[in-house]
Queue: 2 jobs
Job 1
Amino acid sequence: MVGWFVTLLGLFVILSSTMIKGGAAHRLPPQTFPMVVGFLLLICGIGLTFKAWRLRGEDLALNWPDRQGFWTIVVSLVSLGCYIALMDALGLPLASFLYVAFSTWYLKRSKWLTAIIIGLITGLASYYLFIRLLALSFPEGALFGG
Amino acid sequence: MDFSWAYLFQGFATALTVQNLLWALVGCLVGTLVGVLPGIGPVSGIAILLPLTTVLPPTSAIIMMAAIYYGAMYGGSTTAIVVNIPGEASSVCTAMDGYEMAKQGKAGPALAISAISSFVAGTIGVIALTLFAPMLANFAVAFGPPEYFALMFMGLSLVISLSGRALLKGVISMAIGLGAALIGQDPLTGSARLTFGFPKLLGGVDFISVIVGLFAISEVMINVEQRIHVISEVEIGKLMPSRADLRKCLGTMARCTGVGFLLGLLPGCAPSVTTFVAYDLEKRVSKNPEEFGKGAIQGVAAAEGANNATSQAGFVPLFSFGLPTAPSMAVLLGGLMMYGLQPGPMLFKTNPDFVWAVIASMYIGNMMLLILNLPLVGMWAKIVKIPFYILGPLIIFCSVVGTYSIRFQAYDVWVMLIFGAVGYFMRKMGFPVAPMVLASVLAQMLETAMGQSLLISQGSPLIFFTRPISAVFMGLAIASIGWGIWVQVRSKALMAAAEDDEY
């Protein structure tokens, strides 16, 4: 399965490399390195597929998560995605508060008050440390007048 | 340039300014914290903080980054000893005997000997760095683009062949790292490469997003999945080891420093590899090998000494050749380039103030770490008790802040998220991560060196084999690839296909 995926990725990279324009006059045209990467992926993908075929039937002990672990990862990734998507709109402090409070609560449901406190500390620290003290260009959001 | 006391003293004068001392202390504290906390290592720690240090002058920033790195090497032992969770892969050996000692009520002596051995090995390592790095830099002055290309090629080959028996996975990992670094505009011609029609991708993929995703995000995902709750009931008790214990460890410290430092000069020999070699050596020379794994204090001293000696040794090829030997060194290389400093032989000539200040700061940093780790060991052990439901979201928050501050665009954070998922699957399927990190940092330099070499040779790739130094490196690279293939073909065991060693 992984071997097939890598093989297809290699083919895709090779195909994309052929579409790179310009640089024909150069000693090392811009297509060369991407093409090498594509061929490496293609060859290794075929190698992995062959190896998997040779070892077929033997059970590779990959340690995948159980059902609960799987959903915890999905929720964690989706909440991180929401955090990134909302950061520009809500600003770093508010988005950080929401993300940290939610994630802490989600990982330990009984500790909702701790979650709110940790979220608040993170949100305020992000504002005072990164935006005010270090004057970095993070989005402030409407809450802090940004 | 040869070693000169004048330069070293000048370095001390710079390193001992209040500002640089402060940043070295901050680096040592953050590094120890990074090492203590499971789920965040020196690679992600440095990568997260790197963009935030742009407010500092380059010397202070790199002093702090280097302190974070060797601080993390000290700190990694605390979790290993107190709760049997190695903060870093390099602390696995420490956990074997350290945790057994803790269970016997000897957590204090285990932590103390780990700090002392780290200090001894770290200091000897810095002395060797002081003497070796300028010497090698002199040799590297003769390097042209073909030699650099061959050296980087050899470095990548060694990392792949040493990254476990899963050679194919190592090459795939390297190819993905190279591919990620090639996304965007070609630096020479300006042509769009691998952007698939998305204008956002023209800006390229920053290596920090890749590294933070691969290390920090994927590590948190793994811990989240396992529902880790760190609870420690171990008491530290009496701190100092007995005189007999110290006597037993003196030879151990000397041997493991030698092993750790010499192996650490080679690309691919990360601390996680050298600690095992040193531990094994110590077991072989011990009069009581049966005690190893059951709470032998020499086991802790060997692992921690080798760990720190290797960390210091990594700076030799980094400063002399501009060659990173491990992922954390690759991040530091990226940091140096961010500040417009090109590591390599010319660094000693063009920026002696900088390079000697960083080296001098390492002597001071080692002393600071000993002071931090001996009396404050109880405090660090308490930090281990922070439950993961608090720690995990905070690590993600730090990762997001660090990655966003690269260019102040959410795009870089999305890239981090994608590589977090990639890193998670790579770890699950036994793909080594180190070749990917090194390739993503070295890609541009490799391509530039190759382009310049082909320009010199008017397009003939034989240039890499006709110049003596590059021919030696290419020969070693081909030999290491051949060795990797031989191991791969010989190893018919299923384990070889699923082997996981991410160092």
Job 2
Amino acid sequence: MALEPCGKVGFHRRVTKPEPSDPNWIHSETFLRTLQQRQLRLSLGCAMAFLLVVLGLPLANYFAPEFMAARVGGFTLSWLILGVLFFPFVWCIAWIFIRRSIALEKAEVADVNSRAASKPSSN
Amino acid sequence: MHIDPWILAFSFITVAGTIGMGFWSARRSRSAADFFVAGRSVSVGWNASAISGEYLSAASFMGVAGMVMSSGYDALWYPVCYACGYLFLLLFIAGPLRRFGAYTIPDFAEGRYDSPGFRKIAVVFVLFIGFFYTMPQMKGAGTTLHYIFPGLPYWAGVVLVGAVITLNVALGGMKGITLVQAFQYWAKMFAISLPVFVLMSVYGGYGKQLEVQGQSPPAAIVETNRLALPAKAPADNAWLNPFGPLTTKAAKAAAPRLAQPSSVIAGTNTVADPAAQKAWLGEHERGYALLYTYSLIIALICGTAGLPHILVRFYTNPDGVAAKRTTMWVMILIGIFYVFPPVFGALGRNWMPALYSGIGVNGTDGLVLKLPTVLREKYGTLGSILSGITCAGAFAAFMSTFSGLLVSMTGALAHDVYGRILRPSSTPADRMRMFKYSAVLIGLVSVLLGTMVENFEINFMVGQAFAIAAASYFPLLFMSVWWRGMTVKGAATGMLIGGLSAMGAISLTSWTTFISTQAAKFKLLEKAEPAWFVAIKAYSLTDFWAEHPLLRILGEQPAIWAVPLAIGLMVLVSKLTRTAVPADIRMKMLVLHAPEQLGLKQEYIRDHEAGH
């Protein structure tokens, strides 16, 4: 099947997922606000951990050059951190984020469904 | 001159394999959706390999190693931030963007603001960023072919590679590319890691290569642990430690003038005395270098999240969760890769220091290709075979990235400019034909631009493409996803002024670099400067930058002011035009943020169709 853009928003594929369980709750201002806030809090938390290190390292180089030039297995400390250890550090942050964000989405879907179950007349 | 048969054979196999796969998958790709987003059915593993394959460009494969060799520690920020920029993409952009569901960034721009006019502005940056990113790939192509065929001029390599890839893209579209890109990631990984392991087993490990820096050994140790450095190479301490040649260049150029400004201005003294220069540098050098470092970090991290040819691939994921998982795998794949090029840089400094004296295609950018040949003396053909492997990797690098860029730029031209703006009534068959014509047109322009950048460092040029992306697309995507108060006027103003001013600032400093490297080339070849060059040399701005080192840094690395400028303008103009916030903004934000299981997208499409 040739999938062509439809409508001016550029959607291309029909999603055959279940209908929203509780339209009133999903479309409420509170739902959107909590949703965005929870996601943003998670993202910002992870970003802070990352930024602390990535922006702190030049500062450490600036204020403590002798310490950062100390030799560790031939490397300078600063080279070892930036050239080798930095990558696993970032993988850890990414892994934690993905686990938590998928769990968050699951919790949100479960929450919406449980509200729908407790108010069957609204559907 | 002598052509090494091993090097030729490996390179030929890579090129033939790439073209063969392109043709093979071209037969399997029929519909328009196949062409643009690979039918949206690419699995996480394939897609992560393909994104990594596309992302690891000539800059990563050749440029990072060359720059670590020429500039030392400061150049390490490039590979680290190239890899870690994906974290920002993952944290703030990947999931929501995928849920919104559109082919390209211009699709997103139009859909988020219901504004076909905004699409036209957004398309412009796909092309700007794309061409800036294409130039270094072309330099990689010219350098590699010059190395394989020593008599071949730089431009001929650019033309040859440009023509082959353009043909491949015009025939295969994106589906072909996904397969080829995924394969090429593994080719590049193999090609960079194997020679490093072999070289380390002969010359000692990563740590040992760094350990010899900064020691003041007797001559015998120099013989066994490293070769003597030529005069042009940076000193050990400047190379090994932060704030070296890359970040202190502006301050060093300014020191002779600013150390004793009054006597220089009065014309009594053209060169300040060394003690005064040293004192001035001691006071200013490290501060300027810190600023340069921060601006570079911002450009690379935000730029990764705003690269149009990478973002388009997130739409080939089946859903938002898959988009996140893909990003995780991309970070692991490219992170492992990026450990290796700096090892090449350190090995190159110790065992092939002659590259410091060359410029253009004979300089440090050729390090990855040439370094394995140091094994020839001891192990004969092993050196040639490994050099053949790195050449094959280099081909994989610039071919895959250039293909990706070409698909993205061609998509923008065929899908957005032609299909949406010029002829909205065109049939899918028309657009497929247009895709092919656009590919040829963009291929031609890329080749033309590529022939002009022989004397620029590959990695440096890519860094500049990142800075433009950081000041245009990153603020657009970040703010559009998270702030519901954005209006189309705010978004357009911020993106245009941020992106264009970053591009302008970069062009001004690159212009000066172009003139000075060109002058150095004439001097090296002992040729008289031609009349056209003497005429433009008067406008080189060299003196201006020497008097204003701070402005030079802010021009060369504009992200530190251009990203806040773009975001600031977006907020300000959106507040001023707050009545123009799209009417169904809550629904749009829901589609961006609500889990897909809730089925909101389907509802949104239905509402929109009912309304039109």
